[in-house]
Specification:
Number of strands: 15
Shape: elongated
Helix content: 25-40%
Number of helices: 14
Distance between the termini: 94 Å
Oligomer: single chain
Largest sheet: 5 strands, mixed
Radius of gyration: 32 Å
Structural class: alpha+beta
């Protein structure tokens, strides 16, 4: 009896259930083997389809109906040609025949999909199934040509520190689309290819402008809601005389972005300690990172107001704020939190300033030359007796003055009173630690901001290693939002990010911010462009307008 050399198959198109099917060999793509079939329907053109025969699945995707009409859910929907408007691939248009007999009309889904032809030539790389005819790549938003998965992967790459140009070049290679962002005005370059390459970075920059809020806003709302709940829990416990358990602790620091010869702008960073059940020490996680033109108290006030201000849900304030002895941070904290927050100066910075007083610049390179001083500074530890009582704390300063006098260092003479060498630093650090020492034994509080410095080094600094030409404060901060979201594992899953982008677009009828909507004003006639991230007066003006100063 004759045996078939290939198994029988049915065309995935249900309309071809009576068609004649013939096997047409095999094909290997991306380490997967497919068997090709030729389908000859009774009415219609002959076409080919493929079935995966070596892989996780051996069956094609079943036929799926077209998307319903948003105006006539019960109408009959059929395909109605293609259209393309600067997109990666042609998109599918549909025609609706309403069930009530009203006039038929054309429509496209809220988030159009790329045209798949017969849908059987491009297996999905994620599920390794052959998508149906109505299951092409879905765009991230209407009038945007990039698919949601491409944008999701691009945002992940940008959050890791890739430049706009590198991400845009990757996207063009992935989509095999020889295109760039269209110029805002006709180019005058004599080399069109070079001008086009110089415009590619705008592709990734537009993604940050349009899609970063869809990632950041839900995360920010969740973080704020959690802080509100923690603030209510702590206040309720303190109101009945309970102990301060698992307090709200913020750690702040600054990171300068330098050009060739001067400081261009500053990134202000706040991290928060997250407590976990059964763990005595909290985990430090980035809370916000904001690029500002300067490091003034007004800039820090804007940062504190964003994450702790009363925006309708009630104010939030940390129980402890850990930072270096920056006057702008402490001043902004006093104004923003009204004295309810206790400042914990960084012990590491205290030791560094004392070494700098004795050894001059680069003191860490000469630490071995001053063993007595290092022994005295080593007493500044969490388990040391110095930080167990206020009396021991003040005695440590007196011992330090005596040690430095014996080494030949003397303080300034004011009238008939000779000040100690460490008195100027004691004025800054002494009262602050005297206020928090009673709490150090009851709960864990970081004694330095080294944790946030490490987060800046690994999460924030890579964003600016190859890019120092940022000029738009809003676009730059939308990029830092992605880095903070990535540090909180909100950018780990490409599929989840794509789903989040689609859900955000559906809430706005498939639309999002238009590209180029975020831009500093420019006087093209005079060739003058405003650079918000270089305006040293911007923070003060905005803080006064909001009533923070």
């Amino acid at each position: 009896m004759f045996e078939r050399s290939a198994p029988t198959a049915k065309c995935p198109n249900w309309r071809h259930r009576n068609a004649v099917i013939h096997a047409n060999g095999t094909q290997t793509r991306n380490a997967r083997t497919f068997r090709r079939y030729r389908c000859k329907p009774r009415d219609g053109r002959t076409h080919y389809f493929a079935i995966l025969i070596e892989g996780p699945t051996r069956t094609p995707t079943t036929w799926q109906p077209p998307p319903p009409c948003p105006k006539h859910p019960g109408g009959k929907v059929v395909r109605d040609g293609l259209y393309a408007r600067g997109s990666e691939k042609p998109r599918q248009r549909y025609r609706c025949h309403p069930a009530d007999g009203s006039k038929r009309h054309r429509f496209t889904p809220a988030l159009p999909r790329a045209y798949k032809g017969h849908g059987f030539d491009e297996p999905c790389d994620t599920c390794e199934e052959t998508p149906g005819i109505h299951h092409g790549d879905q765009v991230a938003a209407r009038r945007h040509g990039w698919s949601s998965r491409t944008v999701a992967r691009g945002l992940m790459r940008l959050a890791r520190g890739e430049t706009y140009g590198e991400t845009a070049a990757w996207a063009l290679r992935r989509s095999r689309a020889p295109r760039t962002r269209r110029p805002a005005s006709p180019t005058t370059s004599k080399r069109p290819a070079t001008a086009a390459a110089n415009r590619r970075w705008h592709i990734a920059a537009d993604w940050v402008d349009c899609y970063s809020p869809a990632i950041w806003e839900p995360l920010e709302a969740a973080m704020r809601a959690k802080a509100q709940a923690e603030r209510a829990r702590i206040d309720a416990a303190l109101a009945v005389g309970g102990p301060l358990e698992r307090p709200i602790i913020w750690v702040a620091d600054e990171h300068s972005i330098h050009g060739r010869s001067d400081e261009l702008f500053v990134v202000l960073v706040v991290a928060e300690c997250e407590w976990q059940e059964g763990v005595e020490q909290p985990v430090l996680r980035l809370r916000v990172a904001r690029a500002m033109p300067d490091r003034t108290a007004a800039s820090w006030l804007l940062v504190f107001d964003e994450i702790a201000g009363d925006h309708g849900e009630g104010p939030i304030w940390p129980d402890f704020l850990v930072s270096d002895a920056s006057w702008s941070i402490t001043k902004a904290a006093d104004v923003a939190f009204g004295g309810r927050t206790r400042w914990v100066p960084s012990i590491w910075h205290l030791a560094f300033t004392i070494r700098e007083l004795v050894m001059g610049k680069n003191p860490n390179q000469r630490r071995s030359d001053y063993p007595a001083l290092e022994a005295h500074l080593s007493r500044l530890a969490r388990d040391s007796e110095v930080l167990r009582s206020v009396a021991a704390w003040w005695q440590w300063w007196e011992d330090g003055n005596d040690l430095l006098r014996s080494m030949g260092f003397h303080g300034k003479v004011s009238g008939d009173v000779a000040a100690g060498p460490l008195d100027t630093r004691r004025e800054t650090y002494g009262p602050a630690y005297a206020r928090v020492i009673p709490d150090l034994g009851a709960t864990f509080v970081p004694l330095s901001n080294a944790g946030v410095e490490e987060s800046i080094k690994s999460k924030i600094k890579p964003l600016f290693v190859k890019r120092t030409s940022f000029t738009s404060i809003e676009r730059t901060n939308r990029l830092t939002d992605l880095a903070v979201a990535a540090s909180r594992h909100a950018l780990d899953d490409e599929t989840a990010i794509a789903r989040l982008l689609r859900e955000d677009a559906y809430e706005h009828a498939g639309r999002t911010t238009e590209p180029r909507a975020i831009a500093d004003p420019a006087d093209l006639d005079r060739g003058v462009r405003y650079r918000s991230l270089r305006d040293k007066t911007l923070s003060g003006r905005v803080a006064r307008d909001r009533g923070l100063l």
